[in-house]
Amino acid sequence: MKDFSNNQLEEPVYKRGNDGRLMMDKRIVSVFFILLLFLGESLQGAIKSIGLPVIKNFTKQEYNAGTQSWAIAQGSDDELYFANNNGLLQFDGVNWRTYPLPNYSIVRSILIGDGGRIYVGGFNEFGYFEPDVQGQLTYHSMIEFLPEKERNLGEVWKIFHLGNDIIFQAYTKLMIWNGHSFKIIHPATDELFHFSFIVDNQLWINDRARGLMKLEDDGSLKSLQGMGKLKGQEVWGILPFPGNRHLIATLNKGIFIYDDKRLISWNTPADEFLKSNRLMGTARLDGDHFVFGTISKGLLITDSKGDIIQNISRNEGLQNNTVLSIFVDHDRNLWLGLDNGISQIKINSPLSLIGFNNAVGATYSAAVFKNKLFLATNQGVVYHPWHPEERFQRFGKFTMLEATRGQAWSLQKFDDILLVGHNVGAFQIIDDKAELISSIPGYWSFQQVPGHPDRLLGGHYNGLSLFRRTSHGWQYMQEVEGFKESSKAFYFDKLGNLWMTHGYRGVCRLEMNHDFTRVLRTEWYGTAEGLPQVAGVGIYKLNGDLVFLGKDGVYNFDPTSNYFRKNLALTKLLEGKYNLDYIHQDKQENIWYYQNLKAGMMLRQKDGSYVDMDMPFRGLTGRFIYSFEFVLPVDDHNVFMGFDDGVAHYDPSFIKSWNSPFHTMIREVSLIKSDSVLYLGNGPQNEAMVLPYKQNDIRFYFASTDMENIGNITYMLKLEGFDDNWSFWSERTMRDYTNLPEGDYTFMVKGLNRYGISSKPATYHFTILPPWYRSVVAYIFYGLLVILLIGGYIILVGYGFCVPGRRKHVVSKSFMPGKKRRCVVNSWKQTRKSSGYGMKSCGMKWFTKKKNWPTLPWR
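Predicted structure:
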């Protein structure tokens, strides 16, 4: 066992980077990815049967489109597309948009093509959507390329990309587009086609009269060998199957395995289930796991042996039992198009949940006892059969121990008896029966007395009780005298002293008499004795030693100095994890911890170092029950953790990558003042937008297409040319910029998911022109005006109207008593002589006539 009693510790492989984030040693990372490279799908092929995966239901009110979705696809930027009753439905992780067909028919089929094209098929209509220069998805019909007589198609149910061709399939015909024209293939009889499939890079199509057929290179259809059983049957799925075979799923006759020569019935539990519940769709998770949708019983997940791993229906939290379409996304999670709504099922996770659907409430403790899993919940003690030897354990409803109804706090095993700490008292469970052994209210927990295996102390709301072991189990003896404090967390040390922590008063040590019926002395400890605080200190055991969790690290008590000292080894190991709420060491010496309603584990390596693992548990952050956190490691595949709506099951052997890249996208750019849209987020920005100065208020919407972390993305922004630094992380998906000055700008946004992975920035470039009075034209005008003014000044000077010293020779004022004052021209002849200019040339001939002189008022 690892010794944490001294202050030395090897350098952990989990270190801090320059940015303050915790990182694993590069050697560990390298080994991990080499394992993934060589073991690949076998490591990631597990599907959990214990508990339920996280299910996220989207109602039609949320996505604001039709109830039914008939097909699902995912683009290169991870956006999801649904063939919906109301049109093409698009989801970017935040926003839903619907694009109807011109004839408003139901979209039945969908294919993501090259260059951003999204092919769709409806009733008497098919074509593709493609982004225009503004990023708006615009529909382009291809029906016009068909001869007029071939345009009565009915529904277009399937679209495939095969070689250089795009194939559209309706019940009445196959239409093969080579990029220039269509080749049309009809059924050979009056019967119709049903569905078609791509199998080994070939097109197989189900002819209702002749059965499954293969499309040959010359365009003919050839019957497949050994398919006689399927004539007249509806085939809803064909998938690759181990052994170079194929799994063929029918509506009513169940599943068949085809080896290129013959069909073999798949006589398995899964096959019987599907025959009874009418199969409607299929998907392949990996080489050994398959998904089937049904009309009446939701979703079925099986392995290649036909064993049922999961059946997820309304009873398990699915919003509808009829599954019309199934899609495995880039994160290996499931999306379902239902008869009413859309659902996501996160099956690619080592975590699953046991909760309301299993008749389990908020869980405060757990124990595996006599082949049963017991849970202490807010409703009482419940249990379920536990058989780890079984290949797949599927949990149904838990059974309530009726005598324990009410708040149960703890479950603890002592030999062959399970004790329950309960709000109404203490219970013991023997042979699936709960017996009340003390009616004193509020038992928190129990501890066996060292050296006295027949004695127990039970802590309750108002002190301690003493119990003894008899032939009938544990029996209440008496209350421990001399101590009346709430006794929730307490342990014996190696010297036989009883230590306890109080939520508000601190840590105390109890000295008891020889028969543990009385507390002789109580000694309280606080900051004066070395603890970092009084309230909120936790007490736990690691390797048999008591440890005390303070706000700045882990402490041990030194009896020689009667003082608490920091355990440097554990504190260094748990660097940065201050204010821990819980700590537990399992049999493999892994250290589990809780901090601020977050869970994690220090995974012990063979060399004695530790790797910090908290990624698997981030999905439960905030859902643990404060002050009642716990972890129950059962074995290498089964760990249980209580949370506010049940208990989570964690499988440590489940391999999952937590650092998958994702995309952040600018979804809309609009002008605030004119309420007009510049860009709608589909496809790249073709050229920088140039805006007039009066439109200098701009709004951005953005989203991240991380379908693993819907609703758990934060964003960081920067407007280059305006902002000096990036913004703080925020959950907002919209940003306004107002009164921007003229200049060139680049808006940048990136996302951060709950696993600490950030996306590359999405960008949008634009330019704001200066106002008209600061424009180039304005400056040219200003220049011309200056030139005109200067020219006018020169002309006026030349004519003598603006030169100082000459004005007095041109115009003078005469003051004539008794008459109106007049401004007259004085001595024009003298002016002409002195200036050398004639009156004609001055243009002042009219002034020579006295009648033209103006009369001016004067004071």
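Summary: The chain has a mean pLDDT of 89.
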